[in-house]
Amino acid sequence: MRSYRFSLNLDFDELDLSSNTLVVKNPELWHQITKVLRLNPDSPEDITIITGENTQVHRVKVREITKSQVSFEIVETFESQRELQQQVTYFVPIIKPEAFEWMIRKLTELGVQEIVPVAFERSQSQYVTKLSSDKSYERLRKIIQEATEQCEGSVFAQLKPVIDFVDIDKHTQEGLRIFASERRASLEDVQASMKTLSQKQISESLNLSLIVGPEGGVSASEINILEQNSWLSMSLGSRLLKAETAAIALFSRLESY
């Protein structure tokens, strides 16, 4: 049986848990349901709908289709088990748009809840300017929505406005703080650096803040500031990774620790 997951736009759509009713009025979603997927009241597919604002997932069945809306009956509402227990804030570098979009998609798939684009000392100004436009932000939010649906998540990652490196601490909550080091390291060095973090530290920290720098890495002056503010460094191995690859590698290394 095929499964479909959709996201409501509460500016258009209606959700009434008291009457187990959900009404899709968003033209884009209406078109996808009725014209692309051709769902109808007899459709056997497993259909789930989320709002992207909380962990509730609604399993639904098509009740009625008109020229302007699709009405669903809510068969079941349950809590998603696919969200991270920790609050993860990722301070990401602003890199070329294609690579940045890929990075945002993958971090969303991994479950990062908050993504903060940062203009580092080595960031390229043309990429910072492009990302700061409303058009770019709208596209990235759409990517986050699609990635959340695809991996059966329930809560959309929050994409924050661009900040300068010097303002990182203003956006960092109390908890474990780790940044990726560009220093080449052997496997033994990586294992040694991980031993500075106990498994208990990682698993019991309610808030986890991560940083990856742009191409060329975090500068020496930026590293000095981070270390003065209780950020711990972690090497990702002997190879120099592209920024978007490093972002995934750091998160995955901590998840598997």
Structure characteristics:
single chain; 257 residues; alpha/beta; Ribosomal Protein L25, Chain P; Alpha/beta knot; 2 domains; seven-stranded parallel beta sheet; 33% helix; 27% strand
Give your account of this protein's structure.
- This protein has helices at residues 27-36, 97-110, 125-131, 134-150, 187-195, 199-204, 220-228, 243-255, and strands at 3-7, 14-16, 21-24, 46-50, 56-65, 70-79, 87-93, 114-119, 158-159, 163-164, 176-181, 207-211, 232-235.
- It is elongated.
- With 257 residues, it is an alpha/beta fold.
- The longest helix has 17 residues, at 134-150.
- The mean pLDDT is 89.
- Helix 2 (97-110) packs parallel to helix 4 and helix 2 runs parallel beside helix 8 (243-255).
- Strands 7, 8, 9, 10, 11, 12 and 13 form a seven-stranded parallel β-sheet that branches. A six-stranded mixed β-sheet has the order 1-4-5-6-3-2.
- It folds into two domains: 3-79, Hypothetical PUA domain-like, domain 1 (Ribosomal Protein L25, Chain P); 87-255, 3-Layer(aba) Sandwich (Alpha/beta knot).
